Amino acid sequence: MSIAAAPQAPVRGPDRARETTQTRLTAVPAPLPAPTAPRLPFVVLVSMLLVGGVVGLLVFNTSMQQSAFQEQRLQEQATTLAAREQALDGELKKMEDPHKIAAEAKELGMVVPQNAAMLRVPDAKVEGEAAPANRSATPPLHPKVAKPYSVLVAEQKAEDAAAAKKKAAEQAKKKRAQETTQVQEQQRTSPDEAR
Questions:
Q1: Position 84 in a domain
Q2: pLDDT tens column, 100-153
């Protein structure tokens, strides 16, 4: 507590001379401490917002990376499936080849009928007279068209170039092997000469 002088009431009469010398003292209450409690919730709120933001960014970043990995995996799978689709489409086209179908039918003993009868569905009438098929009526299969001469020449040139390239690679490999053995022999003889 601090002590402060209180104002004095005017005195009437002969005590006026005392009035100037004597003052009354009274007790003054101590000042209240500054309020610190409201700052704590604000600091906690700001800290929680910062931590929540950092955690949110980490979760978002992680989910984006997982999405990127999944996208890459799905793109690889799509590429593989597209390549397989092309391969199967090529096989299907080979199977649909009329020459191949005719050859397989001939292997199974199928023949071309001479006279075929037609059935008209709306009238339920048969047109023509069906006759049994025999091998004499089956025409011979047409051979596949041979490749043009220019294509055969180009293929032969490509084969010759590939063979020459392979031969050159083998010769270079043999030459490197000989050089390596020569170097090794020189290294073996060099320490013997030093002695």
A1: yes
A2: 888 888 888 888 777 778 888 888 888 888 777 777 766 666 666 667 778 788
> What pTM value is reported for the model?
0.35
Residue 128 to residue 125: CA distance in whole angstroms = 10
Q: Give domain status of residue 53, yes or no.
A: yes
- CB crowding 47-58: b at 16 or more within 10 Å, else e: eeeeeeeeeeee
Q: Between the CA of residue 75 and those of 71, 80, 83, 87, what are the distances in Å?
A: 6, 9, 12, 18
Separation of alpha carbons 142 and 100, rounded Å: 11
What is the number of structural domains in the chain?
1
Q: Is residue 79 part of a domain?
A: yes
Query: CB–CB of 46/18 below 8 Å?
Result: no
Residue 54 maps to a domain: yes
Domain membership of residue 80 as a residue range: 42-96
Task: Supply the DSSP symbol for 195.
Answer: -
